[in-house]
Write a structure and sequence with these properties.
alpha/beta, single chain, 2 domains, Rossmann fold, eight-stranded mixed beta sheet, P-loop_NTPase, five-stranded parallel beta sheet, DUF4143, about 400 residues, AAA_14, about 40% helix
């Protein structure tokens, strides 16, 4: 079954905004999160705008359907020989498989008749020589799996958002998984994606890694999303569970998980001291489906799962997302966009008075006029309270928002 192309308006708006500008468009993100599909959607848009096929070149270096050049010089010549008159739109998918790809990309970027788009499935793409070589000459779009709005669009026959949201925070938002209905198939698919990442990206760059220990670390982090932690605490937790770990090894595994977008780190920010703190960060999964695959848990821990889902949604809508510290209290998320910071608290429910007081207290202590929102699954009690907005998470996820910032 082929993945149905689902509209992804934030990403399409970003690509349209940068179209025909003399910078390289670099699209990064987890494997199978939809990078190739967004390029396919964009190429369709180019054709609808009158761009002929002769001026569109697309190469997926992981496809076995055709033989493509595998060195920089060969790739450059291959593309240049096929350029049409006027502006040519060149798409290079998973370009890191080409030896010395940075030189080919740099050469193509210097041509006035080429508008260049490239993708990669790990952060190494921009931590390599490419970033140094192209300083000031590229822009990056970080793609995530489906938002909940995109997920519902993919599951067009399903009409109950609340029911689908429970499914979303259980099985995640990987585009192909959204089309699967039975749990066994979803489990098999997610396991295949995880194994591909481990074999194609992790093992290739880190051939001496202990895969058992690495997977144990990933499972521990999946079970502790949203908990304040450190490398030392993670190592201690793994050791108590009988797994081999030390802070140095855990640090290496964290770097690998972050590098492949399986994990994201939210740093803590002192809202009074106006500085980032060096310790006790939080980690969130790049897709909640991997929690299901690694742990086999389909229920429970709803609070941390919805917190993870909100964190990813904030990453889609804002430039940066951190954890806020206010004295001894904590603001779940500080999201910064073009208009300054916005503050968010996330809770399963705030219906008991003591819970409402606890969740609202950190926001009330902030002495500024930036927007403040409490998100929960409650559908009663929503509204404004002394300048703090309380919203239902599902409704907030499906709201109309600005394009990708």
């Amino acid at each position: 079954m082929k993945t149905r192309l689902v509209p992804r308006p934030r990403y399409m708006a970003w690509l349209q905004r940068w179209k025909d500008r003399q910078v390289i468009k670099v699209v990064t993100g987890m494997r199978r999160s939809g990078k190739s599909c967004i390029f396919e959607l964009f190429r369709g848009e180019l054709r609808s705008q009158g761009v002929p096929d002769t001026n569109i070149q697309s190469i997926n270096f992981e496809s076995l359907d055709e033989e493509y050049p595998t060195t920089a010089r060969e790739l450059y010549r291959y593309i240049v020989q096929r350029l049409g008159p006027g502006i040519n739109y060149v798409f290079l998918d998973e370009v890191q498989h080409v030896e010395g790809f940075e030189r080919a990309v740099d050469g193509l970027a210097l041509r006035e008749d080429v508008d260049l788009y490239i993708t990669g499935s790990n952060a190494y793409l921009l931590s390599s020589n490419l970033a140094t070589l192209l300083t000031g000459r590229y822009v990056e779009l970080r793609m995530l799996p489906f938002s909940f709005a995109e997920y519902l669009s993919a599951r067009a026959d399903e009409s109950n958002p609340d029911t689908e949201f429970n499914r979303y925070i259980t099985y995640g938002g990987m585009p192909f998984a959204a089309q699967l209905d039975d749990e066994r198939s979803i489990l098999d698919y997610l396991g295949g994606v995880f194994s591909t990442i481990v074999l194609e990206d992790v093992a290739r760059r880190h051939p001496r890694i202990d895969m058992r220990s690495f997977t144990d670390t990933a499972a521990f982090l999946a079970d502790n999303v949203g908990n304040v932690t450190s490398r030392k605490r993670i190592a201690a937790g793994l050791s108590s569970a009988g797994a081999k770990a030390n802070p140095s090894t855990v640090g290496n595994y964290l770097d690998i998980l972050l590098e492949n977008y399986l994990l994201f780190k939210a740093e803590r920010y002192d809202l009074r001291g106006r500085e980032y703190l060096a310790t006790l960060e939080k980690y969130y999964l790049g897709d909640l489906g991997f929690r299901f695959w690694l742990l086999g848990k389909t229920q429970g821990d709803v609070g941390h799962r919805i917190e993870n889902a909100v964190y990813l949604e904030l990453l889609r809508r804002y430039r940066s997302v951190s954890i806020g510290k206010v004295g001894t209290a904590e603001v779940d998320f500080v999201a910064t966009g073009d208009s300054g910071p916005e503050y968010f608290q996330v809770a399963h429910t705030v219906l008991p008075d003591e819970t409402r007081d606890r969740e609202f207290r950190p926001l009330r202590s902030l002495e500024d006029n930036y927007p403040k929102t409490v998100l929960s699954l409650d559908r009663v009690g929503v509204g404004d309270y002394d300048g703090i907005r309380q919203e239902n998470i599902v409704d907030w996820m499906l709201g109309t928002h600005q394009a990708y910032k």
